Each structure stands twice: as structure tokens, then as C-alpha cells.
Amino acid sequence: MAHRAAVKIADFLCKNNTIQDEDKDIYIYGFEIFLSNLINFTIVAVLGYLLNQFNEAMLFYVAFVTTRSYSGGYHASTYLKCNIIFASVFLITMLVSRILLPTISLVYLLVFMAIYIGCILEYAPIENSNKKLLESDKIRYKKISIVISICWTVLVTVVYFIAKEYATTLTMTLVMVAMLMLIEENKRKEMY
Predict the structure, then answer these.
(1) Statement to judge: residues 94 and 169 lie in one domain
(2) Cβ distance 156 to 65 under 8 Å?
(3) pLDDT tens, 58-112?
(4) CB 80 within 8 A of CB 40
(5) pTM
(6) What is the Cα–Cα distance from 66 to 56, expressed in whole angstroms?
(7) What contacts 145, CB < 8 A, 6 or more positions away?
(8) What residue numbers bound the domain in which 105 lies?
(9) According to the model, what pLDDT value does residue 192 have?
(10) Is residue 145 located within the same domain as residue 59?
(11) Do 40 and 85 share a domain, yes or no?
(12) Is the sign of the CA dihedral 90, 94, 99, 105 positive or negative?
């Protein structure tokens, strides 16, 4: 769906001489990414609203997208699978956060954050077949991933005392990022 829409947009822009034919594939890829992100945002916003957890949904989206941009992780083979997996990850995160909320303590949240940071230190960034990284980019992405992780940990600690539900959601989101990194890393090991 995202690919077909991206092709139609690029064709329209080519016909109107807005973009050059030789640049069409680049625009198609960019539009695919944009449309996929828009679909994922819409999924999270609608589900968050329906679950009466809209603020947590927005926190999930920002943390997930920001972190995954630099850390990498599992990538589905199609946009449809990606959207289904993304929605599933979101729903699992919201469910686990609700289950843990009544009994979770800051110590447990920090243990979960330590597991997440361990995955970042060990595996980030994980490349995907569509986004190959130069060695200099890998070093830069690793550093950015570490800084982001430290910022999330500080935020979890501070927010815990203000709104425990947000700290729990943020932590579970980052645990899911770590799990997707581990899944992709195991998939790679099986291939080689």
C-alpha cells in the first residue's frame, strides 16, 4: 500500500516536472518511509485513544522512533508486516505497562533500563538491508544511542516520582526496543 501510493505521488511529481525522472526512485523511497511513519503514528494515536492511554501512546511513539532511528533492530520484509508488528509491539507494551504499574518500583524500572542499555552497548547500531552504514556512521550512531539511553534513564528516574505510569510506559517501550534488537541479532547469527 505505501509503495503503490509512493509511486503514484512520484509519478505525479514527474509528470508535473517537479522532480526529475532519474531521481524518481529516491523520492519513492522517501515517500514510502514518510507514509509508513504516518501509518504507524496513526495506529498508535488511534489505539492509544481507544485504550484511554493517549499520552502513553505518544510517549511510546516518540521513544520508540527516536531510539530505533539510531539503535536499529528487527525489520519486517514488507510494510504490512511492519505495521502489524509495530501495532503488536505497541499493544504488548501498553498491556505489560498496565499489569506492572500497581507493583513496579523504581529499582525494577532501573533494572529494566540496565538491560536495555546493555543491549545498546553490545549491539547498537544494527544495520538493515535498506540502510547500510559506513564505519564512521556506526561509531556516531553508537554514541548517539548511548546518549539517548542515558537521557531516557534520567527521564525515567525523574518522571517516576511525578507520573509513575509514564515512567513505566517509557521503560517498557525501551525494553521492547531491546527485544527487537536481540531478535534481529539472533536472526543474523542464524543466517551466518
Answers:
(1) yes
(2) no
(3) 999 999 999 998 998 887 778 788 889 999 999 999 999 999 999 999 999 999 9
(4) no
(5) 0.88
(6) 15
(7) 67, 70, 71, 120, 124, 125
(8) 53-191
(9) 63
(10) yes
(11) no
(12) positive
Q: Are residues 5 and 81 in the same domain?
A: no
> How many domains, in total, are found in the chain?
2
186 band by pLDDT with thresholds 50, 70 and 90: confident
Does 125 sit behind a cis peptide bond, omega within 30 degrees of 0 on the bond before it? Answer: yes
Q: Are 184 and 126 in contact (CB under 8 A)?
A: yes
Question: In this predicted model, what pLDDT tens digit does every residue of 36-55 receive, in sequence order?
Answer: 889 999 999 999 999 999 99
Give the pLDDT confidence of 102-141 residue by residue, as tens digits.
999 999 999 999 999 999 999 999 887 666 778 888 899 9
The last residue of one of the domains, among 50, 71, 88, is 50
Residues 24 and 74 reside in one and the same domain: no
To 10 degrees, the CA torsion angle through 31, 33, 39, 40?
Answer: -170
Q: Are 25 and 64 in a shared domain? A: no
Pair (98, 149) in one structural domain = yes
